[in-house]
Amino acid sequence: MARRSTSKPLLSEADAPARSRPRKPRDPAQPRLLLDPMPGRVEPCLALLKSKPPKGPDWSYEIKWDGWRGAIHIEPSGVVRVLTKNGHDWSKRFPAVVEGAKQLGVASAILDGEIVVFDEMGRSDFGLLQAALGGPRGRLPATSAAFVAFDVLYLDGHDLRQTELKARRHLLEGLMIAGDAVIRFSEDFEGDPDDFLAAACEHGLEGIIAKNRNSTYRSGRLGDWIKVKCVQSDAFVIVGYEPSIGAYGGFGSLLLAARKASQLVYVGSVGTGFKEREADALRKLMDKIPCKRKTPPIPYSGKRQVVWQQPTLIAEIAYRGWTGDRKLRHSSFKGLRELQDDAALYDLDSGD
What we know:
The protein folds into 2 domains: 41-229, DNA ligase/mRNA capping enzyme (D-amino Acid Aminotransferase, Chain A, domain 1); 232-337, CATH 2.40.50.140. The chain starts with a strand and ends in a 15-residue tail after the last strand. The protein is α+β, with helices and mostly antiparallel strands. β4 (68-74) and β5 form a beta hairpin. It has helices at 95-102, 126-132, 165-175, 193-202, 276-288; strands at 3-4, 48-49, 59-63, 68-74, 80-84, 109-116, 146-155, 158-159, 183-185, 188-190, 207-212, 225-229, 232-243, 251-260, 263-270, 307-308, 314-319, 321-322, 328-329, 332-337. It is built from 5 helices and 20 strands.
């Protein structure tokens, strides 16, 4: 795998000093802060999907973690919150992450990162994260979850979003606790990104993220961060299932739909990737959905025996590509997503 880059003191980069925006007036609601008021929430910077990583000295490269995007808020009052991508407070679901953040020893901070559970090989695994929460739509506290931090947006009264990434990463690495901590630093690597991507895929990782080292933190999907996946993985809505007596959960496959011009369009089915307990829990969820349909909620001309349902549940699906008629190839079920998490349905128009 590519060699990890070594951190350099910021003062040694005389030709590229870290820049910061002017101070803001003190917020009366947060009188203890000397500089910038702490944001209640920051819309995340999102990675743009590309087939190849960008190259050049302006880019750094990290592993793409397979979990839930999240943010840790260490507030001036001492309260620690764990927020999802869409701003929902899931602190009670991740008590170990909350306690780990308290050990960092900072007065206030906002850390951007990924909530993960590692397998025995040290790889993040979305299915293990969902299992730690008690299965599909589970609400158990995931005591085995960790937080891989890859950015710091606010630190001890300073809003860092207008500071370059290389400076933010330098500060972030300095916060990390050595050893097998719950809050971990997402290391970056140097060298040929094609080699790094090949190594990531060989080790069974989801892919890599390329980030512009000189970029400020901009919310949205603007191209400052680029993701390249080993295997495609996206969110699709479940619109029905094929009943099967001998299969786990009593269903042979799930029928899936994506978004197209504000409508739902059938994109094929998935029949692999289910564990027994997971399939049983998923079937119970599907049976609880009200208003079973006699007709499909999407245009459908197939001949399968299907139990149609309201498009309520959203599944994360890994797949190898698309057929000529825009159906998923070699699909596999990874788990359920939640709207309050980051369940953005795959859009056939944008390919995003």
